[in-house]
Amino acid sequence: MYANDFEYYRAESVDEAVDLLGDHEGAELLAGSHGLLPRMRTGEEAPPALVDMNAVDGLSSIEHIDGDLSVGALVTHAELAESELVREHAPALADAAGEVGDIQVRNGGTIGGNLAHGDARTDHPAAVLALGGSLDVTGPDGDRSIDAADLFTGHFETAVGEQEVVTALRVPLEDDASSTYHKHRNPLSGYPLIGVGAWAQTDGETIERVRVAATGNLAHPKRLAAVEDALEGESLEADTITAAAEQATSLGDDEFRPDVQASPTYCRHLLSVYTERALRDVLGVDGE
């Protein structure tokens, strides 16, 4: 299929992009657009105008800023996966980036577009939630920050406003922390049927802090609070991790998206299995 007709604009700055979004109701931003353009071709989305962000300077860096790892919105998945800075301070993000789509998608798609588009099936949300990240956005009312815990509200639904532009992802730099991302890949699409991000701090014997999040066939990406509660303050033992991962099966059927390939029962099983794998990895606890 072909996309409906649309107007095309090329922004030279973030402020110009915000103005263009305000001037053209229903307009969408164009960056890598590996999520948007396929949906336009199938008729699932039909924006009357596209605002191209690729000429905007200052959105393609990965750097330390004010105690955070700051990732510009136009950084590609491939750049994330290959970044030594990301691998050192936010390995879950590098793991997830390396799992996205295929080589073409990884070299074209961007982190800002991925998160703002709100596709619940993608890899990054679980990693960003587990890392305690946030998005910097600019809109008609100025700049603000959106915590990842408040970002994902549904499938293709986020807290980013219709006239707001994502400028950066921020991940707090925290000492003695580790993180990882594991997924069960859909063999047809490459999307995660279930993907799990995990972040933890320990003193070598006790789990002091932990964040666990899931993406894939869920209604929307989310933190697994029951798993986290079962781990914090507990000892670094295999039985503790197995029992905590079982808490992931407490999600109800309504917390998964309908899928003829994967029932909620199957997805709950995958969620428990991959939660345990991610936790064993991030906590350094062997499977046996």
UniProtKB/TrEMBL annotation:
Pfam families per record: CO_deh_flav_C, FAD_binding_5
Cited Gene3D superfamilies: 3.30.465.10, CO dehydrogenase flavoprotein, C-terminal domain, Uridine Diphospho-n-acetylenolpyruvylglucosamine Reductase, domain 2
Keywords: FAD, Flavoprotein, Oxidoreductase
Domain FAD-binding PCMH-type: 1-176
Keyword hit for Flavoprotein: yes
InterPro entries: CO_DH_flav_C (IPR005107), CO_DH_flav_C_dom_sf (IPR036683), Diverse_Substr_Oxidored (IPR051312), FAD-bd_PCMH (IPR016166), FAD-bd_PCMH-like_sf (IPR036318), FAD-bd_PCMH_sub1 (IPR016167), FAD-bd_PCMH_sub2 (IPR016169), Mopterin_DH_FAD-bd (IPR002346)
PROSITE patterns: FAD_PCMH
MF (Gene Ontology): FAD binding; oxidoreductase activity
Signal peptide interval: none
Protein name: Carbon-monoxide dehydrogenase medium subunit
Species whose genome carries this gene: Natronorubrum thiooxidans
